[in-house]
Amino acid sequence: MSTTTTDTPKPRRALPPLMSLSDTAAERLRALYAKGDGKLLRISVSTKGCSGMSYQMDWVDAAGPGDEVVNDKGLIVLVDRKATLFLIGTVMDYERKAMSAGFTFTNPNEKGRCGCGESFHI
PROSITE patterns given for it (predicted)? Predict the structure, then answer.
């Protein structure tokens, strides 16, 4: 006598979005896109700084073959495919301070940052 058991596979947990934009970042990016010549923002991660990695942003004409397309709040942001594992779940924000303004990243994968905040490690 033989018995067969079939295990139903557990449903896979949904992955967080690759990247999302805060309302403030979307507003600033929308203004930049309105002034730009149809260029798109491309985000990548480069080896740099005391902690090892740094966010890099460039303006490009179109998505390249190695780019992931993130569509959030009606805006398109490109992410270098090599950076996707480092950026899963990241929220891009835009902050205005007394002496500076710029895009910031809240990355759940970061394990630490250097003292000046220019680089991070995973």
Answer: HESB (PS01152)
Residue 10 has pLDDT above 70, yes or no: yes
Q: How far is CA 9 from CA 6, 12, 15, in A?
A: 9, 9, 17
Q: Structure tokens of 2?
A: 């033989």
What predicted TM-score, i.e. pTM, was given to this entire model? Answer: 0.77
Residue type, 38: G
Contact 44, 79 (CB under 8 A): yes
Topology of domain 19-114, CATH: Hypothetical Protein Aq_1857; Chain: A; (2.60.300)
Q: How far apart are CA 79 and CA 70, in angstroms?
A: 7
Domain spans, the chain:
19-114
Q: Can you tell me which residue has the tokens 């490009």? A: 60
Q: What is the pLDDT of residues 48-82, one digit of tens each?
A: 656 577 888 999 999 999 899 999 999 999 999 99
In percent, the amount of the chain with pLDDT more than 70 equals 77
